[in-house]
Design a protein that fits this description.
Chain lengths: ~270, ~270
């Protein structure tokens, strides 16, 4: 009886412990790296009409190619003395912070496609992690819910896979700490911030709502749409000017056009 | 014109103003508060200017008072009563125009009504929005503007995600809301098209031809404005946003002028 009671208490402790691990996380602080849509250690290479929301940076490397045709809504920074250098330092701090978060007993399988996960820290310390199909991250109604994935080696998503956010989960609170390199598959939709030790590759047409932050290697892009994960701000609206001013302006233009010859003749005389 | 006849006209105008004072006040208020309808202030001025401009033509006409004018006045009064019992400002405004037409018919006859037909048609632009129609077209127009704007951005190689009436261009989100639906461009451009055709061309069909091209021009221009705001975040608000709105409208007017030139050239070619 006592043994069974002890086992139950252990299970209860484990569940409570895991529950605490799953729910008590705070976001990883990105510092200046949080202003970058793309940050690389060596190079940033783009093909096609990629659009990057935020800054683009390389440090300690200097090479950025493919802009244009790529488009950056922010500013490009290169070299250790630029903001990219500071951001790399902040990225290192953030990477170590994410890597150091204590992980509960739960270990992820090699492929999390088809799973629905609640907020918390998930680790996969020894192998690579794949996403085939859709993985759903459920914020459980909490807009501040934090998801941290600690991946020992590579993160690879299959073509047309999807990291789907529900229940108030926000891309700005999803952190993918990748031990080596991350590859987002063709046509995939990815949500979250990738903190990669080496390189990050977004293949053709991948839509990326988040930040691609690579410590030492390259970031390679190909016709991607990279949106800002901080989408909590309401979209701006674009009302047309008041109709009174439009009509007055339009009538003035039409009248000027009709009277143009008389006006020109008067102008020539003077 | 005899003094008695002039007195009749002044008294009739005063009576109409008195009977429809609340309606006129309601129209004035709507022009003041609704930015889609603020062009209403300009419409009566233009209408009266056209009547004055055409005075040589209609003053030469013989007055042939018609009893049908009383029927129209009665119809106007009936509509005004219905409006008072819940028909709303639109019905009351239509009643006002019908009554004015009735007065013209009663005092001047069909020749005057025909001579003033164009100013009367132009006066329709000062009528308030018909809520039932407006609410039906608003959302489809919002979606249409969003769809065309997204297509425009895609055509120039800019990746854009459209969710209904919201465009997401690299994290910069633009919402095509009710005030962005293009109705404002549509109404104002239609008014300008008709007035411009009247000033520039003696052919009455030109007014209808230009009216026909207004809708595609206005819808295209509104979508262009939305696309520009999506591409350049600075155009979202403040002075740059207003300037972009005016520039696009100037483009619309320029296209309208070009279209009139084109129609005229085609007409001249086949009637040379």
């Amino acid at each position: 009886m006592g043994t069974r009671q002890g086992a139950s208490i252990k299970k209860l402790g484990l569940v409570l412990g895991c529950t605490l691990c799953l729910h008590a996380q705070t976001p990883v602080v990105l510092g200046t790296a949080g202003t970058f849509g793309v940050l690389a250690g060596s190079t940033v290479t783009n093909t096609g009409t990629t659009v990057i929301s935020g800054n683009l940076g390389v440090s300690p490397g200097l090479a950025v190619t493919g802009f244009p045709p790529g488009f950056v809504t922010g500013t490009q920074f290169t070299g250790v003395t630029s903001l990219a250098g500071t951001a790399q330092n902040d990225l290192t701090t953030a990477y170590l912070n994410a890597q150091g978060r204590s992980c509960p007993v739960l270990n992820l399988p090699g492929d999390i496609g088809g799973m629905t996960l609640l907020p918390g820290v998930y680790c996969n310390s020894s192998t690579s992690l794949g996403i085939t199909g859709t993985v759903t991250l459920n914020g459980n109604g909490d807009p501040n819910a934090v998801f941290i994935f600690q991946i020992g080696t590579a993160l690879t998503t299959a073509s047309n896979s999807n990291v789907h956010l529900i229940g108030g989960a926000q891309a700005s609170n999803v952190f993918w700490q990748v031990g080596s390199s991350a590859t987002v598959g063709t046509g995939s939709v990815f949500n979250g911030i990738i903190l990669a030790q080496a390189s990050i590759t977004l293949t053709t047409g991948a839509v990326f709502n988040g930040r691609a932050l690579a410590r030492t290697g390259a970031v390679t892009l190909d016709s991607n749409l990279m949106t800002n994960p901080d989408t909590s701000t309401p979209p701006g609206s674009v009302p047309a000017p008041p109709s009174l001013i439009l009509v007055v302006a339009g009538l003035a233009i039409a009248t000027l056009y009709l009277k143009r010859e008389q006006l020109l003749a008067r102008f020539r005389r003077t | 014109m005899t003094r008695t006849r002039r007195a009749y006209i002044v008294l009739t105008a005063a009576a109409l103003a008195l009977c429809y004072a609340s309606t006129l006040r309601g129209m004035f208020e709507q022009w003041s508060i609704d930015e889609d309808m603020s062009h209403g202030f300009v419409v009566p001025i233009v209408v009266l200017w056209i009547v004055w401009r055409e005075r040589g033509r209609w003053q030469a006409l013989p007055a042939e008072p018609s009893g049908w004018g009383l029927a129209l006045l009665a119809a106007g009064a009936g509509m005004q009563i219905l409006a008072a019992f819940g028909g709303g400002l639109f019905a009351a405004s239509v009643a006002f125009l019908v009554s004015v037409a009735g007065a013209v018919l009663y005092l001047g006859g069909f020749v005057y009504l025909r001579a003033w037909a164009f100013p009367f048609l132009l006066a329709l632009f000062m009528l308030p929005k018909l809520a039932i129609v407006y609410s039906q077209v608003t959302f489809p127009l919002q979606l249409l503007a969003s769809r065309i704007a997204a297509a425009m951005l895609g055509a120039v190689g800019v990746a854009v995600v459209r969710e209904g009436n919201i465009l997401d261009v690299a994290g910069h989100r633009v919402s095509v809301q009710e005030a962005c639906n293009g109705v404002r461009y549509l109404l104002t451009l239609a008014f300008i098209a008709v007035v411009y055709a009247y000033l520039a061309d003696a052919k009455p069909w030109m007014r209808f031809a230009l009216l026909a091209v207004v809708a595609p021009i206005a819808i295209f221009a509104n979508a262009l404005r939305v696309a520009a705001s999506g591409l350049v975040p600075a155009l979202d608000a403040g002075t740059p946003h207003a300037v972009a709105g005016y520039l696009v409208f100037v483009l619309c007017v320029a296209i309208l002028i070009l279209m009139r030139g084109l129609f005229h050239a085609v007409y001249a070619r086949y009637h040379a």
